[in-house]
Amino acid sequence: MIDMLSSMQKLALIPVLTFSAGFFISMVDPAIVLHEESYPEHLVGAFTGGFGEETCHSCHFDYDLNWDEGELSVQGIPESIEEGKTYELELIVTRDDMGKSGFQMTSRFKDGRQAGSFQIAENDRMMFTKQVPDSLEYLQHSIKGTKPVEDGKISWAVVWEAPEKVSDVIYFNITSNAANGDQSEFGDWIYTKEIVVLKK
Prior knowledge:
Layout: H1 7-28, H2 30-37, E1 70-75, E2 80-81, E3 86-95, E4 100-109, E5 117-119, E6 126-128, E7 139-141, E8 153-161, E9 170-179, E10 189-199
Parallel strand pairs: 2-10
Antiparallel strand pairs: 1-3, 3-8, 4-7, 4-9, 5-8, 6-7, 9-10
């Protein structure tokens, strides 16, 4: 039948056929649609809360920021930085009944430049965020890294190498999402921290 239609009629059918195909796919396999819209696996852009950036709270707004009944803690960041030294950091998020969790982290000088670098080779629980400035590193969870390590707790081991020259204070900005895992922006708790360190 389509062969008998005029060119204009065929063009008019394209949106209808596209919608029908998408609807059919979603009916057959809902996971395909959920995969594209899921939280917190597909973090794109800057959401650390530092340097005027938003946090994940801009979308996951059910609860106040840094809600009392949970916590984001960061271990291993010293009060002062030794130039060129490698530090082993640990990010820990706790919350009762947490289904999944994610984070985003940066390290920058006071003027906003990248400070040091994150080493994530062979660590499949982390990745670098997409659609951020090429000159900066935004470290975040991977899909595998969203699963709690035990009930109510998730952690990530982060290796950070300090700059060879530290000319100013360094800002670590971290935001985490203690999510309920229902693949939506609702019912999630957002925590954020800013840690400022000096040159040793």
